[in-house]
Amino acid sequence: MPLERNAGGANPGQQIEVLVVDDSAVVRQSLKSIIESDPRFRVTIAADPYEAVAILSKSVPGVIVLDVEMPRMDGLTFLRKLMAQHPLPVVMCTSIADRALSALEIGAIEVIPKPDWRDPEKMAAWGDDFLESVRNAAGAARIAAPTTTASPSNPADAVLARRAYVPRGGPSEPIIAIGISTGGVQTMPQVLSGFPRDAPGILIVQHMPKDFISDYAKRLNANPQVQVEVAVAKQHEPLRPGRALVIPGEIHGLVRRTGAGYRVELIEGPQVNRFRPSVDVLFRSFAQAAGPYAAGIICTGMGDDGARGLLEMREAGAMTVAQDKATSIVFGMPREAISRGAAKFVHPVDRIAPAVMAWVAGMDPGSRH
Prior knowledge:
The chain is α/β, with parallel strands linked by helices. It folds into two domains: 16-142, Rossmann fold (3-Layer(aba) Sandwich); 170-367, 3-Layer(aba) Sandwich (Rossmann fold). The strands form three sheets. Strands 8-9-7-6-12-13-14 form a seven-stranded parallel β-sheet, sandwiched between helices. The chain has helices at residues 25-35, 49-56, 75-85, 97-106, 120-138, 184-192, 210-222, 279-289, 307-315, 332-339, 349-362; strands at 16-21, 41-46, 63-67, 90-93, 110-112, 175-180, 201-206, 229-232, 243-246, 252-258, 261-267, 294-298, 319-323, 345-347. Helix 8 runs parallel beside helix 9. It has eleven helices and 14 strands. The longest helix is centred in the middle third of the chain and has 19 residues, at 120-138.
């Protein structure tokens, strides 16, 4: 199934074409209406991948919205062929966690669960999230997108008040925070594989629908290249060496100091930078709880979530690292952190963990247990 096509695409100032591929006529029209509520987009529709190929032979859309279950060819097979021959930004629609993670591994920019089409109230909120995903995939997030009530752009203050780090009286263990978004399914195994089995405790925010987080953590834990244990974080769970905990979806994750160690706290709250959990909230909590005993890592992702929080970590004396442009699938979050002076170091993905472990090795042994 060759995907040869003519060069094309929208010029600056023109509408961005979005190709919707779904076998349901009702769904196609519903998605078309949601997408075209933003006048910057125009929608072309296809009932299956074969129709999509015919369209792609004539024009190049800015984004493809792709279903998984379709006749003649499923969405994942089409995605593999597309990414191998002519990669384009793809938003995948599926509620099946295993297929969602496979789509992200293959190269989809975002995956969004299918909605309950029978519930108008939930559909309105889902439509806002879906349209934001399309904007992100198109790179339209760089254009001032309208703020909706469903996804407010709150600062971290809405969840956690800013305060200075206060040194503790006794010794402290180092701890590590990682913030990652678009491209994280491909990138996180590369980051974690660089940490030894006895690495400091790690807490991760990965922007991802909540229904996929458990399978995401299981895949990381089963990866033979990852030496640390990976699991979904639980309320009040302690951070321990050799364990990486992933914050669940739709709730903010913090670290709190407790005695000689640290524990996870999961708290409700509004979206921050249109995300819940938010990297800014996680990083702020590390700055407050651990100060110079913390390391902050910001990796591939769209937008700027985490840039302010990483700067707060650096100002508190933490070791801070941003993934470089060459190895970032999407350079948005690292770029924002670097431009704000939040990242003390900028490294390719395979050098991030060694740099952090060199920092751990160089800490004053008297400051640790």
